[in-house]
Design a protein that fits this description.
This protein has 628 residues and is of the alpha/beta class. It is built from 22 helices and 16 strands. The strands form 5 sheets. It has a 7-stranded mixed sheet. The protein has a 3-stranded mixed sheet with strand order 9-16-15. Strands 1-2 form a two-stranded antiparallel ribbon. The chain binds 2-acetamido-2-deoxy-beta-D-glucopyranose (6 copies). One 2-acetamido-2-deoxy-beta-D-glucopyranose binds next to loops. One 2-acetamido-2-deoxy-beta-D-glucopyranose (NAG) binds next to loops.
């Protein structure tokens, strides 16, 4: 789940364009419906019997509707490939129909989906949480006077938590980047317009009320005109307050008549259906776009890679490689698996900067064909003190297992727990675990001559000298890692328990790992992994990533040496509440989670720890408008 480019980039570009078109359509279309555009703007017959589904009423934009449906299906499909998994629409609609016109329409106003079905499918942990989350959804009764929409009370905390379980760190990001749109009055106008429209047909049927009918019509048209011209309070005409009073007076008069309940009921029902649909549709799109931003390499980074590659072939600098250093086991070797130039640069620069003796440090960057030359060129331009840097193209290495020749970055998994009735603890129960990917299992083969390496994930920043890691006595273990006991092996439901030694084993994370390659070879860890991988694979039904995760966990269950906690603080890619002092004191910071520091989405208060280690003066950065 890391920002990776790759061959699918072009496909992504089409998808992005598609989604943008879709968004424009989807904002225009519901608006058109709300304002009654499909019936002609100022025509008097604005209240008609409409089919149940709001989208079905657009006979005039048949083609648009169809393509929207198609795209919507596609968005849905694509979304399914991501974590988090979005609940089916039927889950959401069920609520609206079954609860006697209880409304979740306030969710649209807050932009937060409120739905009872929480699906955190990416989580291998406990999934039985439906009843519990029902409690988190406060329904808002729409009573006959229809004031309810405005006075919706729902605990922001609970909504937030529900959102987080369902959509992951997107919710945090949105909360963080919320720009309050000043449109309270516009919303009030829309509400009044809904109510007036609902009452109008009944009033119009009463012969004795021709004056009220006329007044209502006039007010409705007036509101429609104003709303057609503005969507924020600032757009409203100055004398709008007077219009509110007039409208309210007309409505209250209309309410004093015994009206045909059927009509009002039907109208309100349609409105609710519409807001439901609209809210969930927008939410899905937003999550989708957010996921795109998380997953795809930003355009500027792509530009950087291209420019550097071109530069590499243009320049005739003779490479002075410290070839002997690369395989000298007496030096301190670091391995970074990455396709991201900026990220690798920051890890290496920050490690070298804090090294007691940087000339003893050797860095090996394992990357793919696409980024190989750019990566090389970058480190020629930006040497890091006296450290030696080797860039390796995994696709060109001589390995027996050609299936593993594709670069795979450390994999991240979102794990959420719900402790049943205890909603309050949920905020603390979502984790992003990062673990070894297949590429890690090649290390003993790639670095045949080395005995020990430290593997750093590319979303790490180093703040202390790491040399002491080479003096650790790992007590015969293969992998020195920081453990997190907030998640235990036994809690991961999908793990085939048969191969489990101890269910209480704390989980470990990648990010900073001391690897004893000698021991690794001796114990045949890569072979064990392949065995578990095949074994889990035969179970069937799960994604490759999930299988790889489980195989890695099983492989290392009794081979991890616990590093002291102060070596690493993790969660800077999703957790807004990390203690600042802990961050300052940590030897390494790990930005696991979706909000990587080089992305627009990065958590602002953590970005600077990362950013300050980047040479932001580099000409190529400004040329490509890279400004993380
Ligand atoms: C609307 O689309 C349907 C197919 O979805 C088609 O059968 C019908 O003829 C179209 N109507 C118009 C007016 O284009
Ligand atoms: C809907 O709620 C009202 C009170 O708000 C109640 O009188 C009525 O029986 C309910 N109808 C159904 C079908 O539950
Ligand atoms: C998962 O939920 C079931 C039933 O709700 C419960 O019995 C079980 O203990 C839960 N497991 C964990 C790991 O919370
Ligand atoms: C409807 O809401 C109003 C306040 O908006 C309240 O005074 C009234 O009692 C409610 N009616 C019912 C039937 O709940
Ligand atoms: C996690 O729990 C602690 C106390 O147990 C609380 O102070 C903190 O705010 C919680 N964090 C979140 C994100 O809810
Ligand atoms: C390395 O980091 C330092 C500050 O920590 C910065 O001044 C320098 O430009 C960086 N070098 C590179 C190559 O990014």
């Amino acid at each position: 789940m890391k920002g990776g480019g790759g061959g699918g980039k072009r496909r992504w570009r089409f998808l992005v364009i598609g989604v943008l078109v879709l968004i424009i359509l989807s904002t225009l279309v519901p608006l058109a419906f709300l304002l009654g555009l499909h019936n002609g703007f100022h025509s008097p017959g604005f209240v008609t019997v409409q089919p149940a589904s709001p989208f079905d009423s657009f006979s005039r934009i048949n083609a648009t509707r169809n393509s929207q449906r198609d795209l919507s299906v596609r968005v849905h499909e694509v979304l399914h490939r991501f974590t988090p998994v979005i609940p089916k629409k039927s889950d959401i609609n069920m609520v609206a129909r079954d609860t006697n016109r209880t409304s979740t329409s306030h969710s649209k106003k807050r932009g937060v989906p409120v739905s009872p079905a929480i699906v955190a499918k990416s989580s291998p942990a406990n999934k039985t949480k439906t009843e519990a989350s029902y409690k988190g959804v406060q329904v808002n009764k729409v009573n006959a006077s229809y004031k309810g929409v405005q006075g919706a009370i729902v605990s922001a905390d609970e909504t937030q938590r529900t959102c987080q379980l369902k959509y992951g760190s997107y919710c945090l990001w949105r909360e963080e980047n919320k720009e309050p749109l000043k449109d309270a009055k516009v919303k009030h106008m829309k509400d009044l317009l809904f109510v007036a429209r609902a009452y109008y047909p009944s009033i119009a049927k009463m012969p004795s009320q021709s004056k009220l009918t006329r007044d209502m019509k006039q007010n409705i048209q007036e509101f429609e005109r104003i709303l057609s011209e503005g969507s924020a309070d600032a757009d409203l005409p100055t004398q709008v307050d007077k219009k509110f009073q007039k409208m309210e007076a007309v409505i209250s008069k209309a309410k004093s008549f015994p009206v045909d309940c059927n009509n009002v009921d039907k109208k309100l029902r349609q409105i609710l259906d519409l807001t439901e649909d609209e809210a969930s549709f927008h939410m899905k799109q937003s999550v989708f776009l957010y996921q795109l931003a998380v997953q795809t390499m930003p355009k500027s980074l792509h530009c950087l890679s291209m420019r550097l590659t071109v530069e590499y072939f243009k320049s005739s600098t003779v490479e002075v490689e410290d070839t002997e250093k690369f395989s000298d086991p007496s030096l301190l070797h670091f391995v970074i698996i990455s396709d991201n130039i900026l990220a690798s640069s920051v890890v290496i620069n920050s490690t070298a900067l804090h090294a007691r003796e940087s000339k003893n440090f050797v860095f090996h960057v394992l990357t793919d064909e696409q980024n190989y030359f750019a990566m090389k060129q970058w480190f020629i331009r930006n040497p890091c003190k006296q450290a030696a840097i080797q860039v390796l193209n995994i696709e060109k290495l001589e390995l027996d297992n050609s299936a593993m020749k594709k670069l795979s970055l450390p994999a991240e998994f979102r794990v959420s727990f719900t402790s049943g009735d205890n909603l309050a603890s949920q905020g603390n129960r979502t984790y992003y675990l990062s673990l070894f990917s297949q590429s890690h299992y090649l290390l003993p083969k790639i670095f045949r001559k080395l005995k020990k390496v430290v593997v750093l994930d590319h979303d790490v920043v180093v703040q202390r000298d790491l040399s002491p890691l080479w003096e650790l006595d790992m007590k015969g273990k293969v992998n020195g890692a920081v453990k997190t006991c907030s998640v235990r092996l036994g809690q991961l439901k999908s793990l085939k328990k048969g191969s489990l030694v101890d269910a209480n084993t704390c989980l470990w994370m990648s990010g900073l790992n001391v690897i004893d390659l000698t021991k690794w070879r001796e114990l045949g860890v890569s072979e064990t992994y392949l065995k578990f991988y095949k074994q889990q694979m035969s179970g069937g039904g799960e994604s490759r990533e999930a299988i790889a995760l489980q195989a890695t966990l099983l492989t290392f269950q009794d081979k991890v040496y616990a590093l002291d906690d102060k070596w690493a603080v993790s969660g800077l890619g999703y957790d807004y509440y990390i203690n600042t002092q802990a961050i300052k004191n940590a030897a390494t910071l790990h930005y696991n989670g979706n909000m990587k520091p080089w992305l627009e989405l990065g958590i602002p208060q953590y970005k600077n720890y990362w950013r300050k280690h980047l040479n932001r003066e580099d000409r190529f950065l400004s040329d490509c408008n890279v400004n993380p």
